[in-house]
Amino acid sequence: MSSFKTLDDLGDVTGKVALVRVDLNLPMNGGSVTDTTRVEASAPTILELSEKGAKVLLLAHFGRPGGKRNSTMSVSMTLEAVEEVLGSEVMFIPEIQGPVVEQSIGILRNGDVGLLENTRFWPGEEANDADFAAGIAANADFYVNDAFSAAHRAHASTEGLARILPSYAGRAMEKELNALESALEKPEQPVAAVVGGAKVSSKLAVLENLVGKVQHLIIGGGMANTFLAARGVDVGKSLCEHDLTETANAIMEAADAAGCTVHLPYDVVVSQEFAANPPSLRTCNVHEVAESEMILDVGPQAVEALADVLKTCRTVVWNGPMGAFETEPFDAATVALAKTAAALSAEGSLVSVAGGGDTVAALNHAGAARDFSYISTAGGAFLEWMEGKELPGVAALTV
Ligand code: ADP
Ligand code: MG
């Protein structure tokens, strides 16, 4: 992820047509948008181009229409939300290439913003068809990608266009790439990775990549159970992937060989039923979990030890909650560790980068999100980056 061009590299763009890939896959409820975070993320890019006098054409997918027009997935459903965030009128253009787009560009004044129809209405988008991309590019002067969340897909609007037009990272993309670089590519050492969540199977590649890159691998959540079981601990009726014992052992051996310390909890919070504040709730050593109990959170002693680990680190990258944080009191470890990371970040001694759908929710729940150095809202793309994969949308921007 060396060098990519940014909006700073643009010359005079007055009257030029910019194709700007954004993330408008907004959460909806009954036809109205419930959260505009993704629009807000790209607003600085759109407004900057608009202020510089470009004609800005927004490109985005919405849902999974599967290469066909589908009126229930028109990107026009996001139009009002986009206008509200930008504070200006946006012209909806119900096509993506051809004469309608050309005529619309003729109507747009310099600085105006247009919204093109759902890229996934055309099969060429997901097929990354070169002719399809060329048809879109024909109406534009340059391409800006501001949707890191879609960068793990090699689609026409995320990758193909960057191969045809002069290409730039938007401000949100630039921020994300810089944050990721400071977390795993060129981090200040020592680095800790916190990996939690439900299952090892969904994050195998993440763990395999991290053991070679970080000094401390902190494993919590349901996935810690699989590692504990692999070490011979009886985890009772905890969520546990017993078929992954060998895999877990292989990861611990790889960590050993790479000089990475794997941290597993030695005390845990358990109960016999999964409910809020259950009567059978107790904290115990991992070796004392009963047949009828399940591990639902990391215990307080382990949390204290993990906080001490973070205090010795300069960088932490975090994906996955430490426990079943949606249900009280199994949010305690996640909240405590998140607060420690947040406080160290606010103090300036730790660079903290986190991502993942439930992780973001958990950090918000802990009131820790604001003090983290960077929080990625890109679920799939963030995980693929943590797996060490090259993201096609990012690679295409790299010069
Ligand atoms: P992310 O979306 O941030 O990548 P995941 O989807 O992998 O995170 O994991 C989040 C889920 O893991 C949460 O719903 C949480 O309840 C669950 N979880 C965490 N710890 C446990 C546990 N000990 N037992 C069962 N589920 C757990
Ligand atoms: Mg999740």
Question: Quick recap of the structure?
Answer:
With 399 residues, the protein is α/β, with parallel strands linked by helices. Helix content is 38%, strand content 17%. The chain contains 15 helices and 17 strands.
CATH superfamily of the largest domain: Phosphoglycerate kinase, N-terminal domain
The hetero molecules present are: adenosine-5'-diphosphate, magnesium ion
Q: Structural class given helices, strands, pairing?
A: alpha/beta
Largest sheet: 6 strands, parallel
- What do the pLDDT scores average to? 96
Determine the number of helices (DSSP H or I, runs of at least 4 residues): 15
Architecture per CATH nomenclature, i.e. the level-2 architecture of the largest domain: 3-Layer(aba) Sandwich
Which CATH C-level class of the largest domain is it? Alpha Beta
What percent of the residues sit in helical stretches (DSSP H or I)? 25-40%
Uncertain segments: none
- Report the strand count: 17
The backbone outline, from C-alpha atoms, is: elongated
As for the CATH topology of the largest domain, it is Rossmann fold
Structural domains: how many: 2
Distance linking N and C termini: 9 Å
Subcellular location: Cytoplasm
GO molecular function: ADP binding; ATP binding; phosphoglycerate kinase activity
Binding site for (2R)-3-phosphoglycerate: 38, 120, 153
Binding site for substrate: 23-25, 38, 61-64, 120, 153
